[in-house]
Design brief:
Shape: globular
Strand order of the largest sheet: 2-3-1-6
Radius of gyration: 15 Å
Number of strands: 6
CATH architecture: 2-Layer Sandwich
Low-confidence stretches: 88-97
Largest sheet: 4 strands, antiparallel
Order of helices and strands: EHEEHEEE
Helix content: 10-25%
Mean pLDDT: 87
């Protein structure tokens, strides 16, 4: 099943949603763009999610953006994974292994 949602990683802190729109609309219409930021200080965490209007546009972006640099950093582009489909690791997060 083709996915129209992208994960963009290794982003500079200076990258904005508006800039990503100019880059990724080359491949097709962007429905939504969200740079993930620290909720306390607003600084980018270095990744974003983009939802493209069509799965083909998302696949084109993945293929053509491999190795691309934005603001001097080589970005990664892949299909976003659906959080609901990921299985829990079963760890409680309390430091026990």
């Amino acid at each position: 099943m083709a996915n129209n949602k992208l994960y963009i990683g290794n982003l500079s802190n200076d990258v904005t949603e508006e800039y990503l729109k100019t880059v990724f609309e080359e491949f097709g219409s962007c429905i939504s763009i969200k740079v993930i930021r620290n909720r306390f200080n607003g600084i980018s965490k270095g990744f974003a999610f983009i939802e493209m209007a069509e799965a083909k546009a998302a696949q084109d972006a993945i293929m053509k953006c491999k190795g691309t640099t934005i603001y001097g950093q080589r970005i990664t582009v892949s299909e976003a994974r659906d959080q609901r489909s990921q299985k829990s690791s079963g760890r409680s997060g309390r430091g026990r292994f």
